[in-house]
Hints:
The protein is α+β, with helices and mostly antiparallel strands.
Amino acid sequence: MHTYIRKGCVMQFLYGEDGMDATRIEKQTFDTYSYNEKKFKETYYLDLNSDLLGRTNYTVAKTNQYDFFMHPLQIESCRNDPELRILLDEEYDILCKDRIQLREILAARGSGQESDPTVYLPVNLDRLLWNAQKQYRINLLEPSPLHPRVILDTMKALNDELIVVRGDDPISKEAQYNATLLFKIFLRSKFATKRVLRDYRLSKEALEFVVGSILSEFKSSFVHPGEMCGVLAAQSIGEPATQMTLNTFHNTGISAKNVTLGVPRLNEILNVGKNIKTPSNLINLKIRDDKTIAENVLTKLEFVKLGDITVRTEIHYDPDPRNTIIPEDEDIVAMNAPIDYLQINPDDLSPWLLRIVLDDKFIGPRIEQDKDFSLSDIKDRITEHYGGGVHVMYSDNNSTDGYVLRLRIWMNSDNRDIIEIGDSDDNVCNEHPEWLRRMQRTILDELHLFGVPGIKKVYLSEKKITRWNDTTSSFEPTKDWILETDGSNLAEVMNFIEVDHTSTTSNDLVEMFQVLGIEGARSSLFNELRNVLSFDGAYVNYRHIACLADCMTFGGYLMAVSRHGINKGESGPMLRASFEETVEVFMNSAIFSHYDVFNGVTENVMLGQLGRLGTGIVDLLLDHSKLDKAIDVITNNDDNNKFNDELMETTDKYFKDNAESTPFQSSTPYMSNSSLSPSWSMGGATPMIGAFTPAGTTPYVQGSPISGYGKEE
Length: 713
């Protein structure tokens, strides 16, 4: 069940995590998955203290009496068996634990499949039950002759026989547990004691038939040694890939959000592109049902530069810093000047002013969401960016005339290197407008105000998810607020306190590898492949996608499926030449004397010989100890003729002694022609002997009408 690739390296220790053949997997349903506590207990718990033990809640139409699924004698026997009571309680406890485990397993699939009770498992149990009921003529209106202890013992023995990985070491035990966990949960839920007695009414013979069929089909579902799992995976993934026509997917309700899908996205994944077309982060929050928290995180994440929130910029000659010639800014100067000019000398400021008008649509909502925010935060960023070389005045949060920033350059010599002022003070006043234009271009494009670098835009979307509610004991639809981004910076995003770092991901495989390592990259690679292939509802078995994901990551790094990745490995020249760059591969192999041992499928197919696959993977070993009493081969012609004569005499004697018991002795080749030898091919039964030809006595002659060769002469 190992999956090998390239010179004995192990890619998977257990094919598909369960060792099953993909052709033996069927879609099956946990019919009790969504039961509430009352219905679940009614279905599975066999209460020996109940007065209704062995009886259903409906009546039989013919007799107008309650329907019993257990015989009265068995009911009395069960009531007086304290050990059976303990066994039934243990069975119910295991079923309750199975249901909790099952919900965790199915919820891990994601993609809105949390409440979907369908799984893909070997051995169709519903079909086996139907066959048993038909074959053994089970009457569903009669009580079952089975005793509960028989069912418990039979199912326990069956569970012990379901072995995929043998071994007593801890790794083998864990692999065996993981490989059979889901199937055993399914088996226990189907063949619980009460269900077998009440729902199926199986007899002992029918139960033995079902158990034997389950064990036989389970063992025959194992993947065969030498199975070409790589070829199967390539075919399974390649078929839906040829049907892909979509380039991008337009998110409903989000006009600017596009996600690359289809063949272009599959090409990015397989080539492990470093600069993908639409990088994005899927951000889950710790508190997912609060829209306010999601909006607050959104404002913190979006990367905002000063130019993104600027409506216009103006350069004015405003010589008196204590006053202003701009009527709209009189309130700003009156508010800031008395405080600022107590610490600085206004005469040191440039008479030229850079006036920046900010966007009300950005500043207003941000002030409402964050009560601690004001334009002083932007002022601090500007002064920090220029190292104190500029003086900034700003509007109040409650301003009705818009939000404005007023920037002046310091003229003192200490800051000349910062603001790039010339040597002469006379040139300062004349050149300030040009310096302000230069500073304007720089500050709008480079000044980072808020957010995470790389996150261009953040979209808030509502995701409908069905979760199990323990209070109501049912699946209930809930709404989660998630954030999707244009651009990606996973490491910085995961540092926010509100972000759930355990489920936040990126669609950039290289970034996932750099942040979370090879296991995180492998998980992301599998999910991205599944999203692309299953986008239109197509089904591709898990083991095929996992085979490709493991092939690209099992070496501890991301290996692209291209001439620069997988074709640069340790495979032989013939395999690499069949992929791409045939002439270059053969040329390099000839120059550096590379050799090929022809262990793969492709190399042997190219040469028309039996490959190391299927039955060809088995070697014949010779036991030399068995050759001690072997007869030597006689090569001398005289000795060979003597041996043939002795063998012919022995054979003739045997047929003469047993002539009476030989059917159709007149047609026996050895009776009609004593010169025939068993060493010849079929003796007298060949067409060369006239008496035994299909056409009677007509000899086989080339060119005759009977032979069908040549023309009749």
